């Protein structure tokens, strides 16, 4: 079982839709959580950190449920430019700054 | 100005050859990393250096040898290339090696194809 699991998708949604991605992690010692975005044939870039209280950045909302070891990302009012792969990332306690990536969820926003 | 740069961008080579990939960051960061993204798009860390010192060494064949001549550079040398080494290799850097407010910035990747 992978340490970080995601539904690979693809999620095909119309412009303007709301879409949610989920991610589960197996190591209860995980302490830091992120969503990264990777465009086709490009490098990953940090989208947002995920905090225990939940956090929002414009159209993006991230939630963390430590009890269920579950992270989510909600995108409201999807834009064509949101089409990308969204990577769930965790850092274990005592793991330094070693990022452990999920396999990613592909999003395609269509007209 | 490119923050994290890698050369070459593409590398096509025969099995058994030895090749190097170079990485440079101009962000003044202390810590650099190498990641491998395989054909299934799974990204996995290989190595990390902090101020030229190796701090993370995942289970990677010893044909892979990182070298950090200074904290702005982290190169990856691969001996006796195998078909399974075909992947995209990403270099990254972060301000320090700890957690907390320590975003990693990735280079554009080097697409290695072993024939």
Describe it.
The complex is a heterodimer of chains A (111) and B (115). The model of chain A has no long low-confidence stretch (mean pLDDT 94). Chain A has 111 residues and is mainly beta. In chain A, strands 2, 4, 5, 9, 10 and 11 form a six-stranded mixed beta sheet that branches. In chain A, strands 1-3-8-7-6 form a five-stranded antiparallel beta sheet, with no helix packed on it. Chain A is built from no helices and eleven strands. Chain A has strands spanning 4-6, 11-14, 19-25, 30-38, 44-50, 55-57, 60-65, 70-75, 84-92, 100-101, 105-110. Chain A is globular, with a radius of gyration of 13 Å. In chain A, strand 4 (30-38) and strand 5 (44-50) form a beta hairpin. In chain B, strands 2, 4, 5, 6, 9, 10 and 11 form a seven-stranded mixed beta sheet that branches. With 115 residues, chain B is mainly β. The model of chain B has no long low-confidence stretch (mean pLDDT 94). In chain B, a hairpin with a 5-residue loop joins strand 4 and strand 5. Chain B has no helices and eleven strands. Chain B is globular and about 40 Å long. The interface between A and B is medium-sized, with 19 and 24 residues.
SS-derived structural category of chain A? mainly beta
Helical content class of chain B: under 10%
| Principal-axis shape of chain B | globular
- Average the pLDDT over all residues of chain A and give the rounded result: 94
Distance from N terminus to C terminus of chain A (CA atoms, Å) equals 36 Å
Low-confidence stretches of chain B: none
**How many beta-strand segments of chain B?**
11
Which chain pair has the greatest contact? A-B, 19 and 24 residues
Shape category of chain A: globular
Gyration radius over CA of chain A: 13 Å
Low-pLDDT ranges of chain A? none
Task: Please tally the β strands of chain A and state the result.
Answer: 11
Total number of helices of chain A: 0
Please identify the oligomeric state: heterodimer
Kindly state the percentage of residues in helix of chain A.
Answer: under 10%
């Amino acid at each position: 079982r992978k340490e970080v699991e995601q539904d690979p998708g693809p999620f095909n949604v119309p412009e303007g839709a709301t879409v949610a991605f989920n991610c589960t992690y197996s190591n209860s010692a995980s302490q830091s959580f992120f969503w990264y975005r990777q465009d086709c044939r490009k490098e990953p870039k940090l989208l947002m950190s995920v905090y225990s209280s939940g956090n929002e950045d414009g159209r993006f909302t991230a939630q963390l449920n430590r009890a269920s070891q579950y992270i989510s990302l909600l995108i409201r009012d999807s834009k064509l430019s949101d089409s990308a792969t969204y990577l769930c990332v965790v850092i274990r306690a005592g793991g330094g700054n070693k990022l452990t990536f999920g396999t990613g969820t592909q999003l395609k926003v269509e007209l | 100005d490119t923050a994290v740069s890698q050369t070459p961008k593409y590398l096509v080579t025969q099995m058994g050859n030895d090749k190097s990939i170079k990485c440079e960051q101009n962000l003044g960061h202390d810590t650099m990393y190498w990641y491998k993204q395989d054909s299934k798009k799974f990204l996995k860390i290989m190595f990390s250096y902090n101020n030229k010192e190796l701090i993370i060494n995942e289970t990677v064949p010893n044909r892979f040898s990182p070298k950090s001549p200074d904290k702005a550079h982290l190169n990856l040398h691969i001996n006796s290339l195998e078909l399974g080494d075909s992947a995209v290799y990403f270099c990254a850097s972060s301000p320090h090696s700890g957690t907390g407010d320590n975003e990693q910035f990735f280079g554009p990747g080097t697409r290695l194809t072993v024939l």
